[in-house]
Design goal:
135 residues, mainly alpha
Length: 135
């Protein structure tokens, strides 16, 4: 199998599976929806893009493809703890308002990530890419 595809798949799925395990330990219950939930520890988006950039660098060196993947990684990492986090915080406030005025519906929103969650996801991506390369 192509090492690039294997690396990004294992990093993204592995981070999401770890997130599910953390949710199970915290809540003492299994909810399959948590396997696809956004936000939380670790950031699977970060694991995915860092794994992509790392494995491309290992395989191709400082190529144009690596440069593009690195720019993509920086955009995704910044978005994960910047824009998405802000939107998630605003969603929490909106839910408090909805409860206070006793509306029948509760809004659904996706939380972004803290810098620590992004860093752990990035480390997973880096380690998975190196591990796949060494296979």
């Amino acid at each position: 199998m192509n090492k690039i595809i294997l690396s990004i798949f294992l990093a993204g799925f592995g981070a999401q599976l770890l997130k599910l395990i953390i949710f199970i330990v915290q809540r003492k219950t299994l909810r399959w929806h948590d396997l696809v939930v956004t936000g939380g520890m670790p950031s699977s988006h970060s694991a995915f893009v860092v794994s992509l950039a790392t494995i491309i660098f290992i395989e191709e060196g400082a190529s144009t493809t690596f440069a593009v993947s690195l720019v993509l990684a920086f955009i995704v990492l910044r978005d994960a703890f910047g824009v998405r986090r802000t939107v998630g915080d605003e969603g929490l406030i909106l839910n408090k308002i909805v409860k206070k005025i006793k509306l029948k519906t509760e809004t659904h929103f996706s939380m972004g990530h803290t810098p620590k969650q992004v860093l752990v996801g990035a480390l997973i991506g880096l380690l998975v890419a190196v591990g796949v390369y060494l296979l």
